[in-house]
């Protein structure tokens, strides 16, 4: 049986250990909860009606939870000072735009990135080019085209959510509503459509310019023909040389 004094000491030891394991981090954004857990700084800002990513995050943040807010934009350099960031949860927001340099500064440290359940249709292919993290992009209204196909080549897509990256719209309507990975596995190459579309656009543009040149040439010819006709009629209206000679002879005889 443990003596009462020892039991109190043991109890306080457990409480103290718990407090140390979840020690608060004092430089914490307003409305967020920041704690230390297993030597990791966890910043919990979930469901706080945030409209943008806090700018005063602790520089030693390891886990950043920003899910279920109203964030619409992930700007350049949003996490550039968070060189220890390992997990970033941006799911269940209203994100529509992710800038090219959004994850600059965390390329090497970030291990997990969750962008699921947002409003993302397109992202620049360079966004994920240097990331080592496993990324979830599920349940966004993706527009399936060449750029998105190239994006998938640049990242480590979470295998558990790969079938949830669905084409909300596509360069060809027949692929709308289908998981992107299934479309690509069937042999479809959206970049071929892109090149064909570009070729058609160039052909239409060239045809338009050609038509304008032809129209100008026709107008120029017709305009010149009209001027030539007027000049010819004017010349015809002038008295001939023989008539002028006869008139001159008549005047000489009279004189």
Overview of the structural elements:
About 35% of the residues lie in helices and about 15% in strands. A 7-stranded mixed β-sheet has the order 1-2-3-5-7-8-10, with helices on one face. The chain has a two-stranded parallel sheet with strand order 4-6. A two-stranded parallel sheet has the order 9-11. It is elongated. It is built from 5 helices and 11 strands. About 25% of the residues are buried. The protein folds into 2 domains: about 20-190, Ribonuclease Inhibitor (Leucine-rich repeat, LRR (right-handed beta-alpha superhelix)); about 190-250. Belongs to the LRRC3 family.
Q: Count the helices. How many?
A: 5
What proportion strand?
A: 5-15%
Which segments are poorly predicted (pLDDT under 50) over 5 or more consecutive residues? 1-23, 194-204
> What is the number of beta strands?
11
Q: What would CATH call the homologous superfamily of the largest domain?
A: Ribonuclease Inhibitor
Radius of gyration: 38 Å
Give the overall form.
elongated
- The CATH architecture of the largest domain can be named as Alpha-Beta Horseshoe
Order of strands in the sheet with most strands: 1-2-3-5-7-8-10
Largest sheet: 7 strands, mixed
SSE string, helices as H and strands as E: HEEEEEEEEEHEEHHH
Number of domains: 2
Mean pLDDT across all residues, rounded? 80
Q: What is the level 1 CATH name of the largest domain?
A: Alpha Beta
Q: Find the CATH topology of the largest domain.
A: Leucine-rich repeat, LRR (right-handed beta-alpha superhelix)
Helix fraction, binned, reads 25-40%
Distance between the termini: 164 Å
Based on secondary structure, the structural category is alpha/beta
